[in-house]
Design a protein that fits this description.
The chain is mainly alpha-helical. Helix content is 71%, strand content 0%. The radius of gyration is 27 Å and the shape is flat. The model has no long low-confidence stretch (mean pLDDT 75).
Amino acid sequence: MPTAQTRGHGLTILTFWCIAVLIELFTLISYRSPLWFFQPIIRQQSPIEEIHLVRFGYWIFRLIATIFVFGIGLRAPGVPRRRYAIMLNRSHSQTEEDKLKENVWIKFFQHFKSLAPFIWPTGHWGLQLNIIICISIILVGRLLSLEVPRYTKLISKFNLRMIFV
């Protein structure tokens, strides 16, 4: 997704990392629920199953790793820093020209224009038909993947009816 150049990571990726940390921390909100896997560990019940310890350890690992990645993302070590001394010596017209040159959408359409003959071969009806079939298969697959939860629910209801009949 094209965004304006910032000093660090963009708002989109920082928002994603914040949501990832919050999702991991939401587990702590309902720590008293009997449905959570770490209840036997917190209450120190005598028969603590090994699977509960593994799940708890995996959650701790995920939480620490997510916070670590979030911290690295805030520092943004991979994002190059701009040299402002060079920018200070430029005139207003030169900076405007640079902004026009840095436009992501213009670069995208220029690259797409050069690649379009290879993506859509003119005069080759068989290849064009092949491309249309491939794109339609991808779209149908996406639409079918949206229906999977509904059909899973229907199948589970059908199986329950068959068991109790």
